[in-house]
């Protein structure tokens, strides 16, 4: 009798756990809808799924900027990122820039179907308020000749802002760009949309609004492409209130035209634009890029120094290297007195 009771209990508990798991996976994944422009493609592969992996609203920085006035409008700094060799290096550098900025909420949306726990971990270390989102690009867009990178991520971040913010300013800052801290005090009082130069863009070396009498009259950009607003993603900031007043504003999956079409969808007029950076005479953001190198596959023997094992395993989990014992892998070695040595422990003990 007792055994039967136990079995019944186990069955009931299992059923509960299974249905909870099914329910939570349903609620954790939000479908944002599909783009009409690509409706001839199979629907399933265009569907957006984004998950808020972790959100922390508390400012837990150990060293707060001296001007961390809580009455300052919040800057929502939106960073699309994606798994690659350089991801953690870039986010470490950017996070430590953002640590200097008062009243900032960092939204990092990863082009990754999984919530990478190592990302949540480094964001917690910075102490900044942050939201970590998993927002993989729908697979069909990946097959396009011009892949609309970062769009699913920015769309997911905008969705989070619409659901969670009532005021402040948002800005799209890529993980590999370089930001002058002055940029943040410049954009913080954006009423509608502010604009400013971005260095290292295109064949002109810069993309910038052209100003006359304190107003934007045109743009300096080497890729016009029939765009009304030929600006870089890092070249403008938008008021959250203004976004909320335009519920249909959206960023299309159209490589090269995301900025222009997003700004058009906000009903932006040239006369609304607020020039920043001393009437667009200064570069406060640079479109730096890390040159991409392939991820190497290292041929690592079983028995190696424990610190090296720990270090390499960490780098594998961060996506920097691959490691295995396959013949095809790149030989690794230890340098002692300028000479290559085997990296196995046994070998080392033999050294005098
Ligand atoms: C920008 O130019 C306008 C018009 O010349 C001027 O009134 C304004 O003070 C300038 N702003 C800055 C920050 O220099």
From TrEMBL:
Topology of the protein relative to the lipid bilayer: Single-pass type II membrane protein
Glycosylated residues, chain numbering: 279
Catalysed reactions listed for this entry: 3-O-(beta-D-galactosyl-(1->3)-beta-D-galactosyl-(1->4)-beta-D-xylosyl)-L-seryl-[protein] + UDP-alpha-D-glucuronate = 3-O-(beta-D-GlcA-(1->3)-beta-D-Gal-(1->3)-beta-D-Gal-(1->4)-beta-D-Xyl)-L-seryl-[protein] + UDP + H(+)
An example Gene Ontology CC term for this record: Golgi membrane
Statement: the UniProt record of this protein carries the keyword Transmembrane helix: yes
UniProt GO MF annotations: galactosylgalactosylxylosylprotein 3-beta-glucuronosyltransferase activity; metal ion binding
Active site: 259 (proton donor/acceptor)
Cofactor: Mn(2+)
Residues that hold Mn(2+) according to the record: 176
Gene3D superfamilies assigned to the protein according to its UniProt record, in alphabetical order: Spore Coat Polysaccharide Biosynthesis Protein SpsA, Chain A
Enzyme kind, highest EC tier: transferase
Compartment annotation: Golgi apparatus membrane
Record keyword Metal-binding present: yes
SUPFAM superfamilies, per database record: Nucleotide-diphospho-sugar transferases
EC number: 2.4.1.135
Predominant location category: Golgi
Keywords, comma-separated and alphabetical: Glycoprotein, Golgi apparatus, Manganese, Membrane, Metal-binding, Signal-anchor, Transferase, Transmembrane, Transmembrane helix
Any GO BP annotation: carbohydrate metabolic process
Pathway(s) the chain acts in: Protein modification; protein glycosylation
Annotated family: Belongs to the glycosyltransferase 43 family.
Name used for this protein in its record: Galactosylgalactosylxylosylprotein 3-beta-glucuronosyltransferase
């Amino acid at each position: 009798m007792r055994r039967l009771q136990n079995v019944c209990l186990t069955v009931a508990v299992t059923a509960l756990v299974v249905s909870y798991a099914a329910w939570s996976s349903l609620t954790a994944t939000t479908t944002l809808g599909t783009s009409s422009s690509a409706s001839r493609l199979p629907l399933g592969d265009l569907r957006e799924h984004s998950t808020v992996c972790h959100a922390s609203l508390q400012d837990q920085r150990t060293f707060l900027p001296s001007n961390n006035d809580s009455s300052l409008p919040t800057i929502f700094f939106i960073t699309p990122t994606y798994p690659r060799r350089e991801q953690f290096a870039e986010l470490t550098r950017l996070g430590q820039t953002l640590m200097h900025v008062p009243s900032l909420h960092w939204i990092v949306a990863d082009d990754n179907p999984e919530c990478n726990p190592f990302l949540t971990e480094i964001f917690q270390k910075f102490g900044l308020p942050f939201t970590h989102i998993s927002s993989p690009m729908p697979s069909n867009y990946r097959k396009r000749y011009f892949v609309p990178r970062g769009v699913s991520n920015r769309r997911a971040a905008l969705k989070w802002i619409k659901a969670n913010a009532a005021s402040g300013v948002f800005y799209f800052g890529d993980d590999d760009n370089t930001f002058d801290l002055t940029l943040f005090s410049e954009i913080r009082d954006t009423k509608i949309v502010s604009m400013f130069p971005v260095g290292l863009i295109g064949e002109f070396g810069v993309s910038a609004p052209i100003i006359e009498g304190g107003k934007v009259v045109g743009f300096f950009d080497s890729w016009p492409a029939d765009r009304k607003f030929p600006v870089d993603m890092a070249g403008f900031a938008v008021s959250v209130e203004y976004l909320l007043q335009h519920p249909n504003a959206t960023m299309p999956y159209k490589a090269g035209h995301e900025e222009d079409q997003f700004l058009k969808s906000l009903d932006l007029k040239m006369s609304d634009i607020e020039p920043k950076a001393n009437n667009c005479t200064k570069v406060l953001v640079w479109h730096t890029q890390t040159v991409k190198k392939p991820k190497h596959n290292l041929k690592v023997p079983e028995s190696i120094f424990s610190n090296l094992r720990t270090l390499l395993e960490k780098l594998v989990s961060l996506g920097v290297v691959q490691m295995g014992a396959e013949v095809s892998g790149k030989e690794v070695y230890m340098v002692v007195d300028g000479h290559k040595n085997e990296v196995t422990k046994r070998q080392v003990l033999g050294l005098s």
